[in-house]
Design goal:
The chain is of the alpha+beta class. It contains 15 helices and 21 strands. It folds into two domains: 103 residues, Rieske Iron-sulfur Protein; 252 residues, Naphthalene 1,2-dioxygenase Alpha Subunit, Chain A, domain 1. The radius of gyration is 23 Å and the shape is globular. The protein binds FE2/S2 (inorganic) cluster and fe (iii) ion. The site of FE2/S2 (inorganic) cluster has 10 residues, from loops.
């Protein structure tokens, strides 16, 4: 596929993309995982205008705490301000483009670019320039030459989300019918979520969408991909695993995920795989709170996997929160935090964090299975024939369940992933005027501080 640089031929692009991705037929062309021009469009038309996870707010509890994150390939610094609010700005000096911060996290009063020493405060405002009165003919306009602020930030259930698009709907509106499922994953108890320990980061030679679509839709891989890990974790006298008929959801905005519907058997499984303390906490603390907040029917539904479009993944049972960070068409970086309800007992968090590392850490026994699959899908796409192959995404059709908003159905189903690609197609076919109108127009757009 050829996408011209500069002004994008939007009609032509949309037409060509619709041939490659046909959600209504459940057909997807393998090149969407490897085409460099599609990748560039994703950066400007999806990552530069969607709500993206920046970090849990517990990562920056005190004034001056900072965490360097990514929005697509754009590095941003997220900082707790003196008044307790949060600011985020591009980690790019406005002088010659150096990094304002080389660290990954910490506490500071200001950011001094290591190249020539321009200095910015914790909100990204330019505060001083070395020898300014000697080397410039007039004082620099501080407002004009401050770091580029992320104009939209919102915190939900302890998670910080940012968006570059000032005209985008708010975060909850962007969830559409998936808002309740977002709450059932992340807002189970009153205090929201906090991270235990830091963040795991690792790279995988696979396109970011392979992880995102799996977390949106795919319970079907579980018994095949993870059979060895399941055997290792399951007592010999336990009944064999078989396909479980849970439920999946999706919304018009491309979000998706799954639930198990039998909480008692889930509690038993949790006791087996993550210890009795985790199971007791779930039955005695978590579920009564969920029931109170969302009603009995929803308390019986235990979230298993989810992806909030485009790139925020979560496995509630394993407490692993993911950001799929694109690193080119054929590589992603996975950032993973271990999350707990704020106020959980220390012993419980410690014990479960170990299990999370063992199962879904960078070397986790389940993580390795998933990673191997994504790499296996990606590797052949260097080939001229493999990248021209159509792939099948036709499994499952929606079914209505009373009281469940959005589009729902039984797992295993791939209609949530088909919805993911409908949203992907819609965004990729719509120009991001702030970036594409002309090569210089974004300099004038109002989010430039
Ligand atoms: Fe930052 Fe020169 S590039 S001070
Ligand atoms: Fe898996």
């Amino acid at each position: 596929m050829h996408v011209p640089t500069g002004r994008v031929d939007t009609m032509g692009v949309a037409e060509r993309l619709r041939k490659l991705v046909r959600p209504d037929e459940g057909v997807i062309h393998a090149s969407v995982y490897s085409d460099p021009e599609i990748y560039q469009l994703e950066l400007s038309r999806i990552f530069a205008r969607s709500w993206l996870l920046l970090c849990p707010d517990s990562q920056i509890p005190n004034a001056g705490d900072y965490f360097v994150s990514y929005m697509g390939e754009d590095p941003v610094i997220v900082v707790r301000q003196q008044d307790g609010t949060i600011a985020a700005f591009l980690n790019q000096c406005r002088h010659r483009g150096g990094a304002l911060c080389r660290g990954e996290s910490g506490n500071t009063k200001n950011f001094i670019c290591t190249y020539h020493g321009w200095t910015y405060d914790t909100s990204g405002t330019l505060t001083s320039v070395p020898f300014e009165e000697v080397v410039y003919k007039a004082p620099l306009n501080r407002a004009k030459w401050s770091a580029r602020r992320v104009p939209r930030l919102e915190v939900h259930h302890g998670l910080v989300f940012g968006c570059w698009d000032e005209d985008a709907p708010g975060f909850r509106e962007s969830l559409g019918e998936a808002a309740v499922y977002f709450d059932l994953n992340f807002g189970r108890t009153e205090g929201g979520l906090a991270t235990y320990g830091g963040v795991y980061k690792w790279r995988v030679k696979a396109n970011w969408k392979l992880a995102a679509e799996q977390f949106t839709t795919d319970d079907f891989h579980f018994l095949t991909s993870h059979s060895s890990a399941l055997t290792a974790l399951t007592p010999e006298d336990a009944p064999p695993f078989s396909i479980v008929r849970g439920r999946v959801f999706t919304s018009s905005k491309g979000h998706g995920g799954g639930f198990l519907m039998e909480r008692d058997s889930f509690a038993t499984a949790l006791a087996t795989t993550t210890g009795q303390a985790a199971s007791n906490y779930m039955m005695e603390v978590e579920l009564p709170t969920v029931e109170q907040r969302y009603g009995e029917a929803m308390a019986n539904a235990t979230p298993t996997f989810a992806n909030f479009f485009p790139s925020t993944g979560y496995l509630h049972a394993n407490r692993t929160l993911r950001s799929w960070i694109p690193r080119g068409p054929d590589e992603m970086e996975i950032w993973a935090w271990t999350l707990f309800d704020r106020g959980s007992p220390d012993e419980l968090m410690e014990e479960r964090a170990k299990i999370t590392a063992m199962t879904f850490g960078p070397a986790g026994i389940f993580e390795q299975d998933d990673t191997a699959n994504w790499v296996d899908v990606q590797r052949p796409l260097g080939g001229a024939i493999a990248r021209r192959t159509k792939l099948n995404m036709q499994m499952g059709e929606p079914t209505s369940f009373e009281g469940w908003p959005g589009m729902t159905g039984f797992d295993s189903s791939e209609f949530p992933a088909r919805n993911f690609y409908s949203r992907w197609l819609q965004l990729l076919s719509t120009p991001n005027h702030a970036l594409e109108a002309s090569p210089t127009d974004d300099e004038e757009c109002s989010h430039v501080r």
